[in-house]
Amino acid sequence: MSKQSVDSFGTPGAWLVAVAGAALLGSTAFAQDRVEELLAKMTLEEKAGQMTQMTLQAFSTEREWVETRHVLDVEALRAAIVEKHVGSILNQYDAAFTPEYWREVITQVQSIATEETRLGIPVIYAVDSVHGANYVQGATIFPQNLNLAATWNPQLAYVAGYVTAQETRAVGIPWNFSPVADVGRMPLWSRFFETFGEDPHLVSVMAEASVRGLQDGEGTQRVAACGKHFVAYSIPRSGKDRTPTQIGEIELLDTYVPPFEAMIAAGVDTIMVNSGEVNGVPVHASYEMLTELLRERLGFEGVVVTDWEDVIKLNSIHKVAESEKEATRQAVLAGIDMSMVPLKADFADHVVELVREGAIPESRIDQSVRRILKLKESLGLFEEPISPPDMLENFRSDRAADASLAAARESLVLLRNEGSVLPLAQGSRLLVTGPTADALPPVYGAWSFSWQGVEPGLYPDTPTVLDALTARFGEQSVSYVPGASFDAVIDLDAVRTAAAQADAIVLCLGESPSTEKPGDIEDLSLEPAQLALAQAAIDSGKPVILVLIANRPRLFHEVEPGMTAVIWAGHPGPFGPQALAELLSGDLNPSGRLPFTYSRRSGSLITYDRKWTEDLGTTFQMDAYNPLFTFGSGLSYTTFATSDLVVSADAEGVQISVTVSNTGDRAGTEVVQVYVNQEYASVTPHVERLKAFGRVDLGAGESRTLNLVLPREQLTLINRKGERVFEPGWFGVRIADQTARVELR
Ligand code: BGC
Q1: Residue 473, SS3?
Q2: For residues 203 and 263, is the Cβ–Cβ distance under 8 A?
């Protein structure tokens, strides 16, 4: 088995591993000296300041905008950096800045830090560039993570990370709060679209590739990534953001921890903490999570940053600390290094007092400050606090745009295509309708030019779905009737009238972008107004092509049987509409695969890797798991067949060989997915779990035989003592409709 064939199966590829290896050579003995020398000179106040991160908003004058600039309160900024020794600043103020204005702001920050403070330690500035440098005007924007996951192409996650890092660093920002490595298994959750989907292996592979892309390069040429949010943030019991998670140790370690392990192995510089509570303890106050698990068990050595105001919230909302000072004591002793305070610098005062009173040993503070200074050092901030201006020359390159377009194309998932209604013939008369048809925010999603991404005025002039379809099919062929907004019917009669003149209806449904608390919903179903619009479309008798442009898999069982074709588009980004038009016209052969389970009804939100008990139905048949669209599904305009699955075991693990064929008449890409189940184990086995995958391009009629090895470590489980172990026994392997069994001793 060659290394190459293993690499092509779901790891980022040999060239990528080589590049990342080079990046790891960055640290020098010199760095250690500088850090230790500084630490020895620092006062307690200066140390506490390094651990303090404030938001730009704290130094900005109330929503006063002069064209694209906000008004910076330089005196407040100076007071924080010089008097409070604040070592880190985050965020934009309200809306994306131009690259030039970003550099002005960062220059102002760094000149105060390096010229007006005693030790001249540069500030580390941080931002959420979560799908491209989304707080910089004119940046290359990528599809959101859930779309990247739908490509099943880690190279794209790597490239998206790399471009994002270059464009973020070019404006002077060296630290990116990305990637989200939470596993998306609660479809109600407002941040579902920020995840790489529901499967721990897929999330791990994509998060690792993203970290490698973000951190690729030396010093000033890269950013520090931030894996977030440690841990089990994505599975709140209520589905609402920042509400309690209850989770057993086995599930925690088996499902939610692996992406963090993968990122740590890839050298992720920083990790952000989950804002919520897990099993009754806020993670920000949990020594068990932040020190025993993250540091001691997983071996993370980088910087741990809190999430927004989360030290204060130990007092104000979690109610585990009677004062903010006590909250500070709990969080620091639990293991945080930096507090995103973010509006006031009291945290630093509390740290100083707590150390003076003997409630926190100074050695604990030194540990955090050492990590923070090392991070600043490794990013080249001491040499070049602002980052080289020539980095702006590569801002928004054609190559980067091509990568975003490629990601959009590969991310569209064709889930149904009855009677091969798609692709649509040229000359087809189309009625385009629905609230996501002629709007940009849903195409980009939240974290686009503003936090919630809902201000259309901030968007660049890129085509909507309607624009792209009109460009491709011609003005004569495309008519548009809005039909409904997200939550109100506009005019269904107009839809009926227009439908009578059309050959097919492109029904664009979904939701307005949102994230975090503003994205909490009361019902996973699409809004009644949109279902009414869908019904009107169905009643016309014309084929209905449903395009879902949404944050999460909103349910639509009332109208589902009437949909002739269904496309999951998610938040495909600026090139999504073009890619969609190409798909509908047949120029693009779809290759996306669903990175989550699309449930039929709200009472059955079951992930594909369920336990056997979840299969048992009301009539005692094993038929309870019945999703609308399964994890990993997605159609092509050609057909694929899988054959000759041969599986054997040796000391290394499981050897697998399989043949994949394109049995249709046009070239296409199959995503080969290897699922494994252990037949019996000491803890209940999953029905199956994804262990490897790879995209395989096949010409019409072409066949390829693929070989791979699944190492034993891939076949381990978390036992009742919380240990990762291999338990010998029989394993099942499934690739598409091919299955085989193998015994491992
Ligand atoms: C979010 C984080 C984000 C931070 C800084 C928080 O509210 O939960 O994901 O990185 O804000 O913007």
Answers
A1: helix
A2: no
Output the CA torsion 455→456→457→460 (10° steps): 120
Residue 308 Cβ inside 6 Å of ligand 1? The answer reads yes
User: For 703, how many CA atoms within 13 A lie in the half-sphere containing its CB?
Assistant: 9
Compute the distance from residue 73 Cα to the ligand 1 centre, in Å.
23
102-115 per-position pLDDT tens digit: 999 999 999 999 99
Find all residues with CB under 8 Å of 466, minimum gap 6, and list them: 432, 437, 438, 478, 480
Q: Which two tokens stand for residue 124?
A: 């580390």
Q: Does residue 128's CB lie within 6 angstroms of at least one atom of ligand 1?
A: yes
Q: Decide: 228 in ligand 1 pocket, CB within 6 A.
A: yes
Residues 503-513, mean pLDDT to the nearest whole number: 98
Q: Environment class of residue 546 by beta-carbon count within 10 Å: exposed (0-12), middle (13-18) or buried (19+)?
A: buried
- In terms of phi and psi (left: phi > 0; alpha: psi -120 to 50; beta: otherwise), the region of 511 is beta
Distance of CA 491 from the midpoint of ligand 1 (Å):
39
Q: Which of 92, 94, 128 to mutate to test the pocket of ligand 1 (most atoms within 8 A of CB)?
A: 128
From the CA of 91, give the closest atom in ligand 1. 12
Mind listing the pLDDT tens digit for each residue in 202-247? 999 999 999 999 999 999 999 999 999 999 999 999 999 999 999 9
CA distance 582 to 353: 62
Task: State whether the beta carbon of 57 lies less than 6 angstroms from ligand 1.
Answer: no
- Tell me which H or E stretch contains 106: helix 99-115
CA 126 to ligand 1 center in whole angstroms = 11
What beta strand segments (E) does 195-294 contain? 226-230, 270-273, 277-278, 281-282
Which residue's alpha carbon is at the smallest distance from atom 2 of ligand 1?
307
pLDDT per residue over 166-195, tens digit each? 999 999 999 999 999 999 999 999 999 999
Look at residues 359, 376, 357 and name the one whose alpha carbon lies nearest to residue 368: 376
Cβ of 307 less than 6 Å from ligand 1: yes
Q: Is the Cβ atom of 92 under 6 angstroms away from ligand 1?
A: no
- Note the Cα 658 to chain centre separation in Å: 31
Distance 178 CA to ligand 1 centre (A): 10
pLDDT value for 31 = 62
Q: What are phi and psi of 218, to 5 degrees?
A: -105, 145
- Site of tokens 């952000």: 272
Q: Please give the average per-residue pLDDT across 162-167, as a whole number.
A: 98
**Residue nearest ligand 1's atom 6 by CA:** 308
- What confidence score (pLDDT) does residue 72 get? 87
What separation in Å is there between the alpha carbon of 229 and the centre of ligand 1?
A: 9
Atom of ligand 1 nearest to the CA of 342: 5
pLDDT tens-place string over residues 555-580: 999 999 999 999 999 999 999 999 99
Q: Decide whether any atom of ligand 1 lies within 6 Å of the 177 Cβ.
A: yes
Q: What is the CA radius of gyration of the chain?
A: 26
- In the reported structure, the alpha carbon of residue 306 is separated from the centroid of ligand 1 by a whole-number distance in angstroms of 9
| Arithmetic mean of pLDDT, 283-310 | 98
pLDDT at 24 over 70: no
Extended beta strands in 550-593, E state: 565-568
Q: Please give the mean pLDDT across all residues of the chain.
A: 94
Nearest CA to ligand 1 atom 11: 308
129-148 pLDDT tens trace: 999 999 999 999 999 999 99
- Cα separation, 652 vs 99, in Å, equals 51
Query: Would you say residue 14 has pLDDT above 80?
Result: no
Name the E strands within 449-606.
Answer: 478-481, 504-510, 544-549, 565-568
- Active site (catalytic) residues: 307
